[in-house]
Specification:
Blueprint (H helix, E strand, L loop, with lengths): L3 H11 L3 E8 L7 H14 L4 E5 L7 H4 L8 E2 L3 E2 L2 E2 L2 E5 L1 H4 L8 H14 L5 E7 L6 H9 L3 E7 L3 H16 L4 E9 L5 H8 L4 E6 L4 H4 L3 H5 L2 H14 L6
Parallel strand pairs: 1-7, 1-8, 2-6, 2-7, 8-9, 9-10
Antiparallel strand pairs: 3-4, 5-6
Helix pairs in contact: 1-5, 2-11, 5-6
The protein binds adenosine-5'-diphosphate and magnesium ion (MG).
Adenosine-5'-diphosphate binds next to helix 2, strand 9 and helix 9.
Length: 249
């Protein structure tokens, strides 16, 4: 195994053919990071972009379940080649934790993340979507340290309690000069401009709301069914704003 510093330069090399690296992130679990990551990756691929999806949430890796695939270890070729599934290149930390009890001890988590980033061969991509671990703990900081060109796409529910931690996260990202694409308000159930107003006050783009869709749960594990949900329709409306990003830099 290479030393940490050597692995960082390997990671940079591995990601040099990737145009945009989007970290789908939130302070909490259960707010929709994974369904948004998967659906966003699928929708971008439908539009003809070359897309990779990387599940780095080792607390609860779930993208393989949402996509309805059995984890099969990727092919090895001086590194790991992510299999192409529904038009997207897919890689998950699940291949490494398998049935081992999670969470792994702190040091192992960092090592697993760095190792995975250093061995995955993405080649040319327009977008790499990363389903992030929740919050701004060690794992998130490790990913920020390893990937220089990370842009954050934040997800929050409309709860005032959720907002407080989102605010802290935004401040931390700003302090480190990490670009934030904007915030998606997910599972919206009642009319309120609370998140929109607060995002604006912090100078963060409000990308739009995805309402609570009671039909989503039964569609999980079927990409075809997910694509027909109201959830997917609302997400679709947000995508043009994500693609405009260049103009905002
Ligand atoms: N807009 C929505 N409407 C209805 N259910 C949703 C919506 N967004 C997410 N969910 C559901 O909430 C649960 C948590 O979503 P998930 O993507 O796993 O969150 P996270 O990755 O942030 O932990 C899942 O069962 C998912 O189907
Ligand atoms: Mg998740």
């Amino acid at each position: 195994m290479l030393g940490i510093d050597a692995r960082f330069s390997v990671i940079e090399d591995r990601l040099k053919g990737v145009k945009r690296i989007i970290a789908v992130s939130a302070c909490k679990g259960g707010v929709g990071k994974s369904v948004i990551s998967c659906s966003l990756a699928l929708k971008l691929a439908e539009r003809g972009y070359k897309v990779g999806l990387l599940d780095l949430d080792f607390f609860s890796p779930s993208d393989h379940m949402i996509l309805g695939i059995k984890p099969a270890f990727p092919q090895e070729e001086k590194g790991l080649l992510p299999p192409t599934i529904y038009g997207i290149k897919f890689m998950s930390i699940i291949y490494f934790i398998e049935d081992k009890p999670a969470p792994l001890r702190g040091i192992d988590v960092s090592n697993a993340i760095i190792e995975l980033l250093a061995i995955t061969i993405w080649k040319e991509l327009d977008f790499l979507i990363i389903d992030m671990p929740p919050g701004i703990g060690d794992a998130t900081l490790e990913i920020i340290r390893a990937i220089k060109r990370l842009e954050f796409l934040l997800v929050s529910t409309q709860s005032k309690l959720a907002w407080e931690s989102v605010e802290r996260m935004i401040k931390m990202l700003k302090q480190q000069s990490i670009p934030v694409i904007g915030i998606i308000e997910n599972m919206k159930q009642k009319d309120s401009d609370f998140i929109k107003r607060n995002a604006k006050d912090l100078g963060i783009r409000y990308l739009g709301a995805i309402k609570f869709d009671p039909g989503l749960e039964d569609s999980l594990s079927s990409v075809e069914k997910i694509s027909k949900t109201e959830f997917a329709k609302w997400l679709e409306e947000i995508i043009p704003k994500l693609l405009q990003q260049e103009k905002f830099k």
